[in-house]
Fold:
Amino acid sequence: YLYAKKKSNGVKMKNKTIKESQVIMHELVLPNDTNLLGNVLGGRVMHLMDICAAMSAYKHARKPIVTASVDRLDFLAPAKKGDILILKSSVNYSHKTSMEIGVRIDAESPLTGIVSHTATAYLTFVAIDDNNKPVKIPTILPETDKEKYRFQEGKKRHSQRVKRLKVLKNKK
Structure:
């Protein structure tokens, strides 16, 4: 089911499944990661999300990548000092040089085993060449119904981001 498409320079590029970009990362919430309420700092969560998403982007593109945008970072519940953060990321959608990565963070209490969804976000990464110019990446191939749904939703968000960037560039 995987096929290769020709790039403009004649080199074939293998399309990839979403499974190939999946990353699961664990992080312990330490005292330095928390605010006065004992909740993990939002900036710390953002930092970890960016790292986890970047690993998915690297696995998909196999090229240097940069963070281009963060969409819809929603904090849903606090993670506390001592909790284990479980970050999961994968490519939802890929375009010519960019890809949307979905990241979900759960917090697990090590004492009770209770897991709660604490945050979610969509990050866009762009693959770049040695001159820091955007470079083509493989197409993502969704397989399951859930992956196909995420792909279609990612495609919609991509279109919205492109429109938003045009508006921002015209305001200069």
About this structure: The helical segments are 42-61, 145-170. The first helix runs from residue 42 to 61. The radius of gyration is 18 Å.
